[in-house]
Amino acid sequence: DVYKRQVIMSSQVIKVHLTHSIHKGKVMEKRYDLSQTIGSIKANIATHFQTTEEGMRLDLQDLTGTTIESGMKDEKMLGYYQCQEDYTIHVVHMTPQTFVDYDDVSKVEKYVMTDEDYDKRTNTVRAFKAKQRAQLVEQGIEVPEELNADSFKEEAATIKVGDRCQCFPGDRLGTVAYVGRIVALKPGFFIGVQFDEPVGKSDGSVKGVRVFECEPLYGGILRPNQVKVGDYPPEEF
């Protein structure tokens, strides 16, 4: 057994993988010489993870992920533990309170810019759109107003759930089933319509969120200016 370990510890570079008890990342195909000491390997691993040499414990796992050696000694060589190709060296962080997990973005402080500061910048999408709008106005081209949370609010105020309506394009008849904003869509007000015929595109849901109830292909989501309410009795088929 002693002779076997001496042979294994002779100079030979093998490929291993590195994992961490807290860090979600994994270092694939890291190469170490079997004659390297565990202490020198710790020094190298410290450059990959946010764990100091003194604050880590190294465990050796085989191809099945089973730990075959826990807490490898600094003075021992890697070959002493009969490490083989594609084994995993698992880093156990011994002082969790000192570890900052940057993979968890919820713990990273975010910079929030005010609208006033953002408007001062000249290389933003907002600035580019404003410049385009100004150019179109100079050319005498009518530019539609940008959508906001109150877009189509006045038109929507004249429509209520239960109203019979005619919808454009297509002169489709139906009944108003929803009036209001829809978070999954663009800003502003929308009208949900249950058509008399299967001429719609939905079952009353938008991107998986239920807005109103109807049969598949009988539902439609339109802007208020596409809906005209009035005396539109259901047609007999």
Summarize the structure.
The protein has helices at 2-8, 38-45, 115-120, 125-138, 153-156, and strands spanning 13-20, 27-33, 56-61, 67-69, 88-93, 164-167, 172-181, 189-195, 205-206, 209-210, 219-222, 227-229. The protein is an alpha+beta fold and 237 residues long.
Can you characterise this structure?
The structure is a single chain. This protein has 237 residues and is α+β, with helices and mostly antiparallel strands. The protein is built from five helices and twelve strands. The protein has a five-stranded mixed beta sheet, with helices on one face. The protein is elongated.
Q: Which helices and strands occur, and which strands form pairs?
A:
Blueprint: H1 2-8, E1 13-20, E2 27-33, H2 38-45, E3 56-61, E4 67-69, E5 88-93, H3 115-120, H4 125-138, H5 153-156, E6 164-167, E7 172-181, E8 189-195, E9 205-206, E10 209-210, E11 219-222, E12 227-229
List keywords for this structure.
five-stranded antiparallel sheet; single chain; elongated; disordered N terminus; alpha+beta; 237 residues; five-stranded mixed sheet
Helix content: 10-25%
- The parts where pLDDT drops under 50 for at least 5 residues are 1-9
Count of beta strands: 12
Mean pLDDT: 87
What profile does the largest beta sheet have?
5 strands, mixed
Q: Can you count the helices?
A: 5
Order of helices and strands: HEEHEEEHHHEEEEEEE
The radius of gyration is 33 Å
Strand order of the largest sheet: 2-1-5-3-4
N- to C-terminal distance: 91 Å
What is the approximate shape?
elongated
Derived from helix and strand composition plus strand pairing, the structural class reads: alpha+beta
The amount of beta strand, in percent, is 25-35%
